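Input.
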Amino acid sequence: MIVDANVATYWFVDTPMSPAARDLLARQDLSAPTLARWEMARTLQKYMRAGIVTPDLPRTALERVSIYIPVWIGIDEYLPAAWDIALQENHIVYDCLYLALALERSESFATADRRLAALSHKLGVETVLVEAR
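Output.
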């Protein structure tokens, strides 16, 4: 299962979506594009600047995320497919990278982004929408 950066971030930052995101940690097949680490770092930085997390949490989370995501996928070969999806669907290209990975690798996809989940479903990808409980 491909997971996006927001799902991985919710493993470390308590939000209403965190319990559902943490349910995915029971899976043994989690993977993500290398881009997800960069997106996660940026989101954690925003949480830190807002005083929601301590300054040490982002570094710890970025080190520990590989415990949960054992497979990190290079993105270069998937960029053309992501670009095609982005143009066809009028969507952000880096979001479409997750979909290109899921499609080309025949994997399911988990996200907390409703719009991205709807697009994923439209493209025929088995999709898990992480929502607040």
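Residues 30 and 41 are 19 Å apart (CA to CA).
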